[in-house]
Amino acid sequence: MKTILNAFCILILIAGCKSENSGLIMTVKGPVKASEMGVSLTHEHILVDFAGADKIADEKWDREAVIEKALPFLKLATEYGCKTFVECTPSYIGKDPLLLSDLSERTGLNIITNTGFYGASDNKYIPAFAYEESAQQLADRWISEWNNGIDGSGVKPGFIKIGVSPGALSDIHKKLITAAAITHLSTGMVIASHTGPSIPAFEQIEILKKEGVSPEAFIWVHAQTEKDMNKHVEAAKMGAWVSFDGLSDDNVGKYAELIKNMNEKRVLNKVFLSHDAGWYDPQKEGGGNYRGYNTLFEKLIPELQKAGFTDNQIQLLLVKNPAKAFTIKIRNIE
User: Is 274:40 a contact under the CB 8 Å cutoff?
Assistant: First the structure.
């Protein structure tokens, strides 16, 4: 308990620290100074509906039921010092901007939502029209959400979320990353791609470069599934953000080793940490089991402290890196 309380005190202190970043992020409540992001969870979920793009509909869930389920977990995260919550549920899997806006109001969290399409899971969540439209046409849809808000809600996205399969990129997934590149160059939103292993990660980076987008605009989501830690370092040295985001109580040691490796190779400034936790599933009774967002605070931070990580290094991981990445800024190849 003492270790947990020490970590809690450190995180509260860090939450009061401001990033040096002078730009803006886009939350569900509007623009916020990046310097005010504070401690950030960079890959989490509140609601996820796995029905599929051809079956999903907003009326399938009760927003108040979702709020009742999620609110205690979100409030606990704020008690540990979390100030910004990046909600990564994409379109056609349960993205609900009005729900997120309500939860932001009730918790005081900066919540960031997204635009884009998710191509992992055998393309189950890609709408049929995406196969017919060009990358430019898809980008036009995503840019419209940035300019006008999502589905008439007035809520604007703060990043681009796509997803690809673990192997070499298919044609539709090449189209998604190309559309994301076009969208980035128009809006300045960072691109977070559900990726996993390194093969599709580096293929996406190469497509971005061909489109004139710097790897600094790319977040390699679920990078922890790549077993070769040298690949994490390689991507980071190219400028990409490396996201270790499946943290749970049973893999804290593994995550500590991943972070230590990035620190030893002097690329700790490119690392994200998160749980990929939640979430309310309307297909299950009562929303199913909801996993909280506390392992980072209760277990991983103490583990890093025992390994000699300083408060400044923890602040880099949880405050400065997210603020730099999610700042609205066009990162083109100079």
Answer: no
